[in-house]
Amino acid sequence: MHLARLVATMLIALMALMALLPLSGARSAPPPAPVTTVYLVPSSDLPTTVLSDAEIARTAQALTDWANAGLAPAWRLSAVKVVAVPRGAPALPSTAWYLSLMPRTDAWGVTGYHFESKTGVPYGEIGVEDAINYDFTWTVCVSHELAEMLVNPYTNYFALNGSGKTAFAREVGDPVSNSSYKWSENGITYRFTDFVYPSYFTPGAPYPYDKMHLITRPFGFLQGDYQLVFGAGPLIPLAKG
């Protein structure tokens, strides 16, 4: 009787232990995918009558969905989250990626740019009032810089065009900087930038080369667009189509 009871107890303990172990071939849940967060930060001198916190917040959500629907899959990026920072909010952490929304950028005549800060953080500036004065929708400008920041955050990626002598900066918005398309969300229609695919920077790659299917060959340009090009000589700042 005591032996039977001991065996039964051991069997119960063994079954309990097996219940805690994964089944043969079972896989544990994958770790959460990384997310790249970019903040939209209005400067203190950008009037709310030009761009309100509410409009920035709506646009941030639309940019998040737009980037995750097209740009991130095309370039095999991690998930993207664009966050609006309301005026008067506490300062961001020093490591945060951000786009500053300003009346005008600190580069004369330039409605937007992105670069790496002295502390090694990707950042950019958007000249909202300048964009409006130039009859250039600010959402096109901010989506352009966002796309380029995500694909080339430290502005240090280049691609050879096949000759082995010319390198093109891997900027995904510049070759199609005058092209944009509609993005509708929650009853609001935005205009966001066209962007090139990895095939654009790949000699001999098949069509298409950009989201809107406008460019007809790798390293090509549309009329009036541009790209940073490095050759055997000095930097060519603007190679125009």
SSE blueprint and pairings:
Layout: H1 2-20, E1 35-42, H2 53-75, E2 79-84, E3 97-102, E4 112-116, E5 122-127, H3 128-133, H4 138-151, E6 158-160, E7 167-169, E8 180-185, E9 188-193, E10 229-230
Parallel strand pairs: 1-2, 1-3, 3-5
Antiparallel strand pairs: 4-5, 6-7, 7-10, 8-9
Structural features, described:
The chain has a five-stranded mixed beta sheet. Strands 6-7-10 form a three-stranded antiparallel beta sheet, with no helix packed on it. The protein starts with a helix and ends in an 11-residue tail after the last strand. It is 26% helix and 21% strand. It is built from four helices and ten strands. The longest helix is centred in the N-terminal third of the chain and has 23 residues, at 53-75. Mean pLDDT is 86; it is low at 1-26 and 234-241. The protein has one domain (35-230). It has helices at residues 2-20, 53-75, 128-133, 138-151, and strands at 35-42, 79-84, 97-102, 112-116, 122-127, 158-160, 167-169, 180-185, 188-193, 229-230.
